[in-house]
Amino acid sequence: MRELLLEYGAIGVAEVMNYPGVVAGDAELLAKIAAAGERRVDGHAPGLSGRPLDAYLAAGIESDHECTRLDEAEEKRRKGMWIFVRQGSASKNLADLIPTVLRHGTERIALCTDDREPDTILAEGHVNDCVRLAVACGARLEDALVLATANPAQYHNFQHLGWLAPGYQADVLCFDALDELRPVRVYQQGQLVAERGRIVPGAVPTVPAPDWMRESVHLAGDPDAAAFALTPPAGGLARVIGIEPDTLTTRHLVLDVRDPAAAVARIGVAERHLGTGRIGLGYVRGFGLARGAIASTVAHDAHNCMVVGEMGPAGPAEMSVAVARLAELGGGQLAVLDGKVIAEVPLPIAGLMSDQAAAEVAAAVDHLEHVAAAELGVTIGAPFMHLSFLGLSVIPELRITDHGLVDVDKFALTSVAPA
User: Fold this and answer.
1) Quick check: helix, strand or coil at residue 236?
2) Fewer beta carbons under 10 A from the terminal one: N or C of the chain?
């Protein structure tokens, strides 16, 4: 970390996710925070409050973008923490948090996105969409613009950015009107780089991804259907990951997974970097998936192969086909029905990125989500974004990794069968 900070110009330490470790005074974590020196240290502490929050802040954490409740955001602001109000594709927190700006002004708070699907960016915008939403929720336009420009520049110690004034870098968005906030021209360092939604030819150099970033899905072999078969516990009661619209926080449910009314699906995580063959299995509720399977190699932060399959007897086989296709593609997102891939978005660069134009990727994502809804019964919005976060074992309450279910509140692995 010191090498990255000192030799490669990193601007700080991002997202210190192991907040229980920080609170407990883990020596390695504290050393990583100390390595930042005068640079910023970003946090990641959903729901943390009281004395544990005090310890987290005393260790040197300065910001958080994981607030979902107004009282949480206001406690953190009162204690000097910077709050980044997030509006992503699956995590939509702006409407709940913007009242803290209306009550207490614009100090130590800014807007951010975090995980927006490309079709969302093209259709609705990026941080400019956050500004528009903030105004719709009652913020003054001037305040919303400060949250989008001057404040994040101040937080990240970019003293040459964030203001339209002599001596500042000439990064300028030009609008025909301020009601929709859709820029008609974009200038960077005084040079026109985009106009009416199109990049100026030559403004952004084309840099191909190196070969070592491709073919990054390394399984121990294509897992067969048996690898994804999970027998319900005796009596049928099992721990189930409960997902809900517009939030990344999950619920730790206990349901009879044999009951069709529980609307449960299978979920699996196949390790894809070292060829260990390790697969974690469990149950999930909230996708609405009734048939087939969906899968993705975008899965924060380990980015293993995440797959959700129908609860019926065909589920394990559908999941097996999905993971085998991910390996064949070198990564991506897809939907499977009756043993066939019916829609996919190839992501050959590290299993995370496409080498196609943004409009093409956005169209493919939109088509995949439409197929997942129409053919598989998926009901939740941004299903692949929700899926990508279910392997992130630091957001409460229940997650799953290639090692199995994780009780985030206890920061420990747990069994599918409830105690």
Assistant:
1) coil
2) C
Omega of the bond prior to 64 within 30 degrees of 0, cis? no
Structure tokens at 315: 């589920």
Instruction: List the chain domain ranges.
Output: 2-199, 225-414
CA 223 to chain centre: 27
Per-position b or e across 369-382, b if 16+ CB within 10 A of its CB: bebbbebbbbebeb
Strands of 198-199's sheet, edge to edge?
172-175, 183-188, 191-195, 198-199
- Residue 150, SS3? helix
Q: Which residues neighbour 367 within 8 Å (Cβ) at sequence distance 6 or greater?
A: 343
Alpha helices by DSSP H, 330-389: 358-376, 383-389
Other CB atoms within 10 A of residue 50 CB: 8
3-state secondary structure (DSSP) of residue 104: helix
Beta strands, E only, 204-257: 237-242, 251-256
**Residue 39 near residue 11 (C-beta atoms within 8 A):** yes
Question: Would you write out the chain's pLDDT as a tens digit for each of its 419 residues?
Answer: 888 898 988 999 999 999 999 999 999 999 999 999 999 999 999 999 999 999 999 999 999 999 999 999 999 999 999 999 999 998 999 999 999 999 999 999 999 998 899 989 999 999 999 999 999 999 999 999 999 999 999 999 999 999 999 999 999 999 999 888 999 999 999 999 999 989 999 999 889 999 999 999 999 998 999 999 999 999 999 999 999 999 999 999 999 999 999 999 999 999 999 999 999 999 999 999 999 999 999 999 999 999 999 999 999 999 999 999 999 999 999 999 999 999 999 999 999 999 999 999 999 999 999 999 999 999 999 999 999 999 999 999 999 999 999 999 998 999 999 97
321 Cβ contact partners less than 8 Å away, ≥ 6 residues apart: 293, 336, 339, 340, 341
DSSP state of 92: B
CATH code of the region 2-199: 3.20.20.140
Task: Report the side by side order of strands in the sheet with 40-43.
Answer: 12-16, 40-43, 63-64, 82-86, 109-112
